[in-house]
Design goal:
Length: 434
């Protein structure tokens, strides 16, 4: 049984959603059968309030998907797919849910989890501990819990080809990074000297990490690790930080209007010959819109109005991570996001991909096809879904993990990938899973 206090919470969201439905013009809505995707939905975990913060990654070698996620009642948890009937959660017990770090009374353990795998299949999870206001790191090789020595939000974790980690996070005064646990000398090198409301990391073909961030002044930055960790202009010379755009409109919660971001780092060795360039998408709470931009700034457009996220206006974005993610399948970019315009009382989950100009149903000049994944209209009511969303493509199937706000459950949606024929000439690359 879910907590009774949620009735009041949902009433507030409903009133806000009703206002949004009147105040914003709905976008073009794609039918779930256009093209005929057959989405399967599984409640992976419903033990209390679970999944508001999560991280999805795929184990190399086995292609087994794993999800690190936050449980209010139990702490930091991990779900891993297993053989049917051998697990303890999910449909037909096809997943195994375990507690990596248990919570204690009055302490939230496991928010902002960042899960990543080494090449040998071992993994690490970076997460927040509210009792000590520090970031902690769980290493499956040693099953140890280690504090980085500083507090952190919006955690990101990336292993390079040598299996060396990069930890990236906001400290509530700046953006810091580290390659060791704990940080050397008790202080982590500073990447950016301001708070952020959106932060994401990805790696190139050589495993070198890059990041995008939106700071409290609504400036968009791109940062990349320098060869040999020398010659850069930030992080003690180890990284190069580049200001991409001044996004303006700093009036939103916590000093910024931007509360969601997704990032794909190009995997091409020669960027000039690359058909799929590094791309960043971000969500603006004030405008209720998503913008998509190529990192080289050759193409940067206001992509789609999706409405304002249905949350109490003064609630911190830390509590309500807007769901967005970018992944690639056969050199085609897939955007997953929340749409707040389609239904007056709830968020829905959608997927979008580029199509020839004029043939799509969304994006500038109808150059994208937007498809409804989960409209939340089940169980006799409208369910707000998609917060904390993370995506991956595994063995020709799309996997989406996200939070069901109404029921406070961790949900997995998946389907085969029946992408229509691509009219453009593409060079197909091996599957890249983020």
């Amino acid at each position: 049984m879910k907590p009774a206090y949620f009735v009041w919470h949902f009433t507030l969201l409903s009133l806000l959603g009703l206002w949004l439905a009147v105040a914003h013009t709905p976008t073009i809505t794609a039918a779930p059968t256009d093209p005929p995707y057959e989405w399967e939905f599984t409640t992976l975990d419903s033990a209390g309030d679970v999944g508001s913060h999560l991280s999805l990654a795929v184990q190399p070698g086995t292609n087994i998907p794993h999800i690190a996620y936050y449980s209010v009642e139990q702490g930091l948890k991990l779900a891993a797919r297993t053989a049917e009937g051998t697990g303890n959660c999910g449909s037909a017990n096809t997943w195994n849910c375990t507690i990596l770090q248990p919570t204690v009374e009055g302490v939230s353990i496991g928010r902002f989890p960042a899960l990543a795998f080494r090449s040998d299949g071992s993994y690490g999870v970076l997460y927040h501990n509210s009792a000590t206001h520090t970031n902690h790191y769980f290493d499956s090789q040693t099953t140890s819990q280690t504090a980085l020595g500083t507090q952190g939000y919006f955690n990101q974790l990336q292993y390079n080809l040598n299996d060396s980690p990069t930890f990236l996070f906001e400290t509530n005064t700046n953006v810091s990074l580290s390659t060791t646990v704990p940080c050397p000398g008790g202080g982590c090198p500073m990447l950016h000297g301001a708070n952020v409301s959106a932060l994401a990391i990805d790696a190139n073909l050589l495993g070198t990490p890059s990041a995008v961030l939106i700071d409290e002044y609504d400036d968009l930055y791109y940062a990349s690790q320098r060869p040999g960790n020398i010659g850069g202009n930030c992080a003690n010379g180890a990284w190069q930080c580049t200001h991409l755009q001044d996004l303006l409109n700093t009036i939103g919660p916590d000093g910024s209007s931007y509360t969601g971001i997704a990032f794909y780092q190009s995997k091409c060795l020669l960027p000039s010959n690359c058909t799929l360039k590094s791309t960043v998408a971000w969500y603006n709470y004030e405008w209720g819109a998503i913008t998509i931009c190529k990192i080289d700034l050759t193409s940067c457009t206001g992509w789609q109005n999706v409405g304002a996220a249905p949350r109490p206006i003064n609630t911190s974005p830390l509590e309500w991570p807007v769901g967005m993610d970018l992944v690639v399948y056969e050199n085609k970019l897939l955007l997953f996001y929340q749409d707040f315009n389609d239904q007056p009382f709830n968020a829905v989950v959608k997927m979008a991909y580029e199509v020839p100009a004029g043939t799509g149903n969304c994006g500038g000049d109808n150059t994208w096809q937007c498809i409804v994944v989960d409209d939340g209209n089940r169980g006799g009511g409208f369910i707000s879904v998609g917060f904390g969303l993370q995506a991956a493509v595994v063995d020709g199937r799309i996997l989406l993990a996200y939070y069901d706000l109404f029921n406070k459950d961790l949900i997995l949606a998946e389907t085969a990938v029946p992408l229509p024929p691509i009219e453009n000439d593409f060079i197909y690359l091996p599957l890249v899973v983020k």
